[in-house]
Every structure is written in structure tokens, then in C-alpha cells.
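User: Second chain of the day. Same drill as before.
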Amino acid sequence: MKIERKLKAYQTGFTMIELIAFAVILYVVGAMTIPRFFELANAEQGTEIKNIASALTSMASLNHANNISYDAGLSNIRPVEVVSCQNVTALLEVELDKGYRIEAGQGVTIEHNGINIEGGSSSCFIAFDSNKDGVFDLNDEPRESFIAYGVRN
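Assistant: Same format as last time:
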């Protein structure tokens, strides 16, 4: 009976091997989850920019339809003038975050029936300034295109 009491008295903490095993398990779990966390952050940014591009296309389409009905005398709501890809952001209810850049794509000139003429259209691009250099370039990711329609008042 005295021997059992002695053994119980010495078994009050963790052994060094148990602590090392626990630390290794934590390291392995951390090594697997931290990169996934950053992948999720990038995926979230990609989803957000797709949603913004979709909203810009929808608002530009609605503004274009309103322009057609206004010109025909069917509406008294004056459309917002859009003569460049950057003008499309005026159709949003909120201002875009400064980290986003909007640039012209194809169809921006009069010769190509572009956005700067009434009823013309252009594919435009919105990108997140991921390298934070304040310049829109091909290194900025994520990047998404949207369609804009020219409206003149």
C-alpha cells in the first residue's frame, strides 16, 4: 500500500515527452491552417470584386434603359451621364474604397462605338490594388471586367 501512494505522488504533472508531443501537434495543425486562412482571405476579396463588377454592370444597364425611356419621353427621371468607365461609379449608392481601381477596356473610343457616345458600350475593368502602389497594372489581383453604357445628357 505504501508503494501505491508513492507512485500517485509522482504522477502530478506532464512528462517532457508529452509536452513535446503536444507542441509538435500544435505546430502541425498551425502549419496546415495558416496558409488556408490566407487563401480564404484572397478568395473573399475575389468574391467581393466579382460582386462589385456585377453591381456596376447592373447599374450601368439600368441607367442605359432609363436613358432610352427618358429620351423617348416615357420617364422624367434624368439619367446619370456616363462617358468613361470611371463615371459608372457615380451610379453606386456608396463610394468605392480607395483600394479599387477602374480602368478602360475595349470600346472606349468613338471610332469603336465606345462608351463616350450615347448608347455605346465598353468593357471596363475593376481591380483591387493588391500591391498598394496606387497604380492600376496587371499585377493587381483580383481583377474583374464589367460592361458600361454611354449616356449623354
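The first helix runs from residue 2 to 10.

User: Great, on to the next one.
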